[in-house]
Amino acid sequence: KAGVTQTPRYLIKTRGQQVTLSCSPISGHRSVSWYQQTPGQGLQFLFEYFSETQRNKGNFPGRFSGRQFSNSRSEMNVSTLELGDSALYLCASSLGGITDTQYFGPGTRLTVL
Amino acid sequence: GNSVTQMEGPVTLSEEAFLTINCTYTATGYPSLFWYVQYPGEGLQLLLKATKADDKGSNKGFEATYRKETTSFHLEKGSVQVSDSAVYFCALSARLSGGSNYKLTFGKGTLLTVNP
């Protein structure tokens, strides 16, 4: 089975711009979760989508949003980028949700200049 | 709120040494507990998990027991190998207080280096 894929792998943006990241889950997985990883804050949960609905949400501002399509692929959007948004963004898929084993993708490295 | 505290690294051991990485948690209700590992140049992957009190998760010689009385989930391995060098993350999945919203919370990670 193919693993979780994320595109693009690297991205450079400037402050004020917006960005969209994409995640394709393992076939058959209906849950996709997103995480932000930084040296200072570590791994932080952004949100989870299950069957096209946001089911769980972390403590991030509304500039961070997402959606899930009928084929379970998910996108995350960050608007009005700030320097502090520079991070590795990981997505993970699972069968049942965030109480289940998460299968992580390689991540998208976002740099905001 | 929910939180995970794990011992700060880095931890450096010689091959065949005994490993313990401490992890304690604060959570609402009955969380599920996980250890994830990130090998150099690779993505995060599940190492082991436990879903209820007194459960023991095990994989690749690693073990951790869900201790509700001490709110701990310490990772142990009797004899580490060079190939175990990685960053280890303790995590919990639990409901946020006052609602039906679940959240996955990670510790800061512990870098383990095993020397031959």
Description of the structure:
The complex is a heterodimer of chains A (113) and B (116). Chain A is built from no helices and 11 strands. With 113 residues, chain A is mainly beta. The mean pLDDT of chain A is 94. The N and C termini of chain B lie far apart (41 Å). The radius of gyration of chain B is 14 Å and the shape is globular. Chain B has 116 residues and is mainly β. Chain A binds chain B through residues 4, 33, 35, 42-45, 48, 55-58, 90, 92, 97-99, 101-107, and chain B through 32, 34, 36, 43-46, 49, 51, 89, 91, 93, 101-109.
Name the helix and strand elements of chain B from N-terminus to C-terminus, one letter apiece: EEEEEEEEEEEE
Shape of chain A: globular
Strand content bin of chain A:
over 45%
Largest sheet of chain B: 6 strands, mixed
Q: Helix/strand-derived class of chain B? A: mainly beta
Overall, the morphology of chain B is globular
**Residue-averaged pLDDT of chain B:** 92
Structural class of chain A: mainly beta
Mean pLDDT of chain A: 94
Strand % of chain B is over 45%
Quaternary state of this entry equals heterodimer
Distance between the termini of chain B: 41 Å
Helical content of chain B, roughly? under 10%
Largest interface, chains and sizes: A-B, 24 and 21 residues
Q: What integer value in Å does the Rg of chain B equal?
A: 14 Å
Largest sheet of chain A: 7 strands, mixed
